[in-house]
């Protein structure tokens, strides 16, 4: 068994395990989830624009949705960078570890923002918007 450090964790791997392939697949999966959430936020933005400033939480929701979308774009760029960089090259491992940490922090903030966005969302209070 080979022990390979990945982002400050130790994984016990079989000799034929390709770490770079695993990281690439993991990153692509995270990217697809990011795209799905971005589409959801675009839908929220559309609904918010249709209701207009009559909605009680219009400004708050606009800030949340736009902040979420901007963070998602930033995380998407970081995920793209992670997917195209070879983790097997030792000179990139520290940089990729920092990018992975930044991506995790970004996803955490996106999650928190979207929880608030869901609570104050148009769909939940559409009948009370005016």
Automatic annotation (TrEMBL):
<comment type="similarity">
    <text>Belongs to the ninjurin family.</text>
</comment>
<protein>
    <submittedName>
        <fullName>Ninjurin-2-like</fullName>
    </submittedName>
</protein>
<keyword id="KW-0812">Transmembrane</keyword>
<keyword id="KW-0130">Cell adhesion</keyword>
<dbReference type="Pfam" id="PF04923">
    <property type="entry name" value="Ninjurin"/>
</dbReference>
<keyword id="KW-1133">Transmembrane helix</keyword>
<keyword id="KW-0472">Membrane</keyword>
<feature type="transmembrane region" description="Helical">
    <location>
        <begin position="102"/>
        <end position="122"/>
    </location>
</feature>
<dbReference type="InterPro" id="IPR007007">
    <property type="entry name" value="Ninjurin"/>
</dbReference>
<feature type="transmembrane region" description="Helical">
    <location>
        <begin position="57"/>
        <end position="82"/>
    </location>
</feature>
């Amino acid at each position: 068994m080979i022990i390979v450090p990945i982002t400050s964790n130790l994984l016990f791997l079989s000799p034929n395990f390709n770490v770079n392939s695993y990281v690439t697949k993991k990153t692509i999966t995270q990217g697809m989830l990011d795209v799905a959430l971005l589409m959801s936020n675009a839908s929220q933005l559309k609904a918010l624009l249709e209701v207009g400033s009559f909605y009680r939480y219009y400004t708050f929701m606009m800030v949340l949705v736009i902040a979420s979308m901007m963070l998602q774009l930033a995380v998407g760029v970081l995920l793209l960078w992670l997917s195209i960089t070879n983790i097997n090259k030792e000179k990139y491992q520290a940089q990729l570890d920092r990018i992975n940490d930044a991506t995790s922090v970004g996803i955490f903030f996106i999650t928190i923002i979207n929880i608030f966005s869901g609570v104050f969302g148009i769909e939940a209070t559409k009948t009370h918007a005016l």
